[in-house]
Amino acid sequence: MRIIHIAHQQLRKYGHTRVNWAQKLFYGLIKNDHHVQPFSDRDVATFEAPFGIRDLGVNKANKRLLQTVEAYQPDLIIVGHCDIIENKTLEEARRLCPSTIIVGCNNDPLFVPENFAKIEHRCEVTDAFFVSTGERDLEPFKGKRARLYHMPNPVDPSVERFDVSAQTEFSNDLIFCSKSEAYTERGRIVETIKQLVGDELRFYTPGNYGQPGVWGRDYDLALACSKMGLNLNRQEGYHWYSSARIAQMAGNGLLVFTDERAEFNTLFPEQSLVYFSSTDDLVNKIREFHNDDAKRQQWATNAYKFFHAQMNNKLYAQYIVEASMQQPFSHDYVWLQTR
C-alpha cells in the first residue's frame, strides 16, 4: 500500500530527539512492507520559508503537501500532530486523489483544551481518527465524519532496545522524567516521594528541581541504568490514557508504577504494571518492590514481554491500516478484546 505519513520527523534535531510515537508508526508501516512517503510539516515549512522563519512557510508547506499527494497518489494518508496542515488542504487532497482514505492520529491528552479542539477539528475531515485515550472517553467526538478508535502506546524493538528486568546493578533505583508543569500537580507526588524515601533509594528526576532534561541517546541510557520508573501523567483518570513513557519504560524492562484510575488492569495481564491508589500507597509499593528484587524482576519481565509481544509497532501500524481501510482484523489485538 502507498501511504503518506504526515508528522513531525524532527529533522532539525540532528539526532537529539525525543522518543517519538509517530516515528515508531513510520517504522512499523515500513516493517509491514508498505511504501511510505514521510512529510514533516514543520521541517518543510522551515525549509521553504524566507530566512528559515517557520511561520512564513506555512502556506508553502500546505502547497508542497498537495504537490506530494498529486505526484504520489497514496492509498492512505495518515495525519499526525501537524497543526501547520489545514483541513482545507486535506479536503483538496481528497479531491486530487478521490480514492484515498485520510485518517488522523493524536497521542496527546484530552484534558488540554487546545488538544481537545484539535481532535474535534480534524474529525470533521478525516475518515477515521485514532486517539491514545480509551474509546469510553471519545464520546464527545462522535457525530462528525471520522470513525473513532483507541490506539495504544507502542514499543519498537529498535527503540526500546534494552531489557533491564533481570539486572541487579543500577545507577538509579527510581526514575521520573518530565518537564511539563501545565495542567498538573504531579510535582507534589514527586516531592512527597523524595521526602519519604529519599534516603532509602536513588531517585533520579531529570527535568525537575533544576536538573536538565535528558533527550535522545542520553534518555535511552538513563532508562538503561534505572530499575523502576514512575508513570505519572499530568492528570489521571482517563480511560486507558497514559503518557508514552509507559511504553518507553516497560519496553526497556523497568518496573512501572501507574495510577489505577486509568484501568489498565483491564488491558494488561496480572503482575505486570504496579497500580497505586494514592501517594501513600505508591510510596509503600515503591518500598516493597525495591526491597524484593525477585518480585520486581518477575513483574517487570511480564510487562516487558507483554509490550513487545502484543503492543509492538508492527501490530500497532497493522491495526491502524486495517481499521482505516475497514479491512478484517488479521490479529486479535488486545485493546479490542478487553474493552
Descriptive terms for the model:
6-stranded parallel β-sheet, 5-stranded parallel β-sheet, alpha/beta, Rossmann fold, 38% helix, 11 strands, globular
What does it look like?
It is globular, with a radius of gyration of 21 Å. It has twelve helices and eleven strands. By secondary structure, the chain is α/β, with parallel strands linked by helices. Helix content is 38%, strand content 14%. It has a six-stranded parallel β-sheet, with helices on both faces. The protein has a five-stranded parallel β-sheet with strand order 8-7-9-10-11, sandwiched between helices. Helix 8 links the parallel strand 9 and strand 10.
> What pattern of helices and strands is seen along the backbone?
EHEHHEHEHEEEHEHEHEEHHHH
CATH architecture assignment of the largest domain: 3-Layer(aba) Sandwich
Shape: globular
Measured by DSSP, the beta-strand proportion falls in 5-15%
Spatial arrangement of strands, main beta sheet: 2-1-3-4-5-6
How many strands, what sense, and barrel or not for the largest sheet? 6 strands, parallel
* Mean pLDDT figure: 94
- The total count of helices amounts to 12
Instruction: State the end-to-end CA separation.
Output: 29 Å
Q: Quote the CATH topology of the largest domain.
A: Rossmann fold
Q: Indicate the low-confidence ranges by residue numbers.
A: none
Number of strands: 11
Radius of gyration, taken over Cα atoms and rounded to an integer in Å: 21 Å
Any idea of the CATH class of the largest domain?
Alpha Beta
